[in-house]
Every structure is written in structure tokens, then in C-alpha cells.
Amino acid sequence: MSGTSSLGPAPDALELAALLCSRVCHDLISPVGAIVNGLEVIDDNPKPEDRDFALDLIRKSAKTASARLQFCRLAFGAAGSAGAQIDLGDAQAMAKGHIEDGKVTLTWNLPRLLMPKNRVKLLLNMLVIAQQTIPRGGTLTIDPVGEGETMSFRITSAGLNARVPQNIVDIIGSTSAAVDAHAVQPYYTRLLAQACGLTVKLALEGETVVVSAS
Predict the structure, then answer these.
(1) Could you give the C-alpha distances from 214 to 120, 126, 201, 202, in angstroms and in order?
(2) Quick one: pLDDT band at residue 189, thresholds 50, 70, 90?
(3) Residue pLDDT, tens place only, 31-46
(4) CA-based R_g, the chain, Å
(5) DSSP category for residue 85
(6) How many Å apart are CA 150 and CA 116, to the nearest integer?
(7) CA 214, CA 201: separation in Å to the nearest integer?
(8) Which residues is 107 bridged to in the sheet?
(9) Cβ neighbours of residue 101 under 8 Å, at least 6 residues apart?
(10) Alpha carbon distances (Å) from 95 to 40, 169, 177
(11) What is the DSSP code (8-state) at residue 10?
């Protein structure tokens, strides 16, 4: 993502849609490619142990691809009509399926209630940003700020060498930043926050990083 914080024109609606599609494809290419590789092994009439390995690879990769698709549909997609609400319980299930990968675990302290879809989409995108602050893995703890439909969120990232990525800070804090497929996710997070009347911030607090919306 280097070089994405330079000033430049914001993408128009068509370019933003294309960049988000590129981001989703990037998330899916690895597990889908692994499924193809597993099928090729099976097509080559492998030894029983190789066949078992290939089938295990296909199962795990299909599960990963499904979890990422469901998460992206909620985090980046329309997620219902304008004004629709989303159950935070559903968001929790999608987040756990996508983010908990053996390196990162979620501690979800939010109540189960219906919230405006843009706030839920904002939460999921904040989780993606928070995950990038602990590259070696750790724990993401999600706490509510306020209550009801106007509730916002505070995510605390704890892990070895937790850090605040300056490029992400620049993108979510800039009103004019050059955006490519790597930078579109934090840029989209900023747009979601603006739609909710909020601002996303990253701050180092001791050995943890806090991603908050207020």
C-alpha cells in the first residue's frame, strides 16, 4: 500500500465500484486458486495419501472462500435496500468466519440488535483495518460506544508489535487521496463513517492500537 497517501483526485462512482470489485477479487483469488490446485491433483490419479491431502485442501479452501464471500457481501455490498437494518448477530457470525484464521481471535462485546446497515458496514470495515494493526496476530476486542441505533464502536487490537499503519491513517484522514485497489478499503471506511456522521481514528494506547468511530 506504499505511495497511496499522495494527494490526488478522489475516484468517481464508477471507479470506486471497480476498485471495490478488485478488492473482493483479491480476497478470493487465493482460496479459489487452492481449490483449482486440489482438483488438478485429484485429476492426476494420485496416491491415496495425496488424494486425501488434496480433498482436505479443497474443503478448507472452499470454507475460506465462502466465509470471505459472505463477509464481503455484507462489508462492501448493498446488504439490502436503502434504509435497511442488519442484525449485529449476523455481523458477528460473518466477522468471526472471515477474521478468525488461527492467528486472530475476536472478543465481541456488542449487544444483539438491529442497526442501520451503514453502521454495520462501518464496523466490519473497521475490523479489517484493526486486523492490519496486528500483522503477527492477536486479539481484536469490539466494544460499544453509546447505545441503540446511534451506537458506534471501539476496537482494541492487542498483539505482538501492534502498530498504527501510517498509510491507513493518511487515507482515512485525507479529503483528497490517490486511491488504488490496495487503498480502497480504508477509503471506503472513511466514506461509510461520513455517511454515519462519524470519524474513524487510529491511536496507539500503550501496547495496543485502538480503532474508534465517534
Answers:
(1) 14, 12, 8, 11
(2) very high
(3) 999 999 999 999 987 7
(4) 18
(5) E
(6) 9
(7) 8
(8) 141
(9) none
(10) 31, 22, 28
(11) P
